[in-house]
Amino acid sequence: MDAALTDEWVRVGYCRLRSVFDQLPGWVLFVGTVIVFAVAAEIGIRLARWRRKKPADDDRKSHSSVLLAAILALLGLSLAFSFSMAETRFAERRALVLEEANAIGTTYLRATLLPEPHSREARELLRQYVDIRDVPTPEALAGAMERSQPLHNELWAVAVAASEEQPDPMTALFVQSLNQLIDLHEDRTTVILHQRLPGAILLTLYLVALLAMGTLGYSVGLTRTRPILPSLAVIAAVAIVLLLIVELDRPFERVFEVDQAALDDVRETVSRSEAVQRY
Question: Which of 92, 82, 90 is nearest to 257 (CA)?
Answer without folding.
Answer: 90
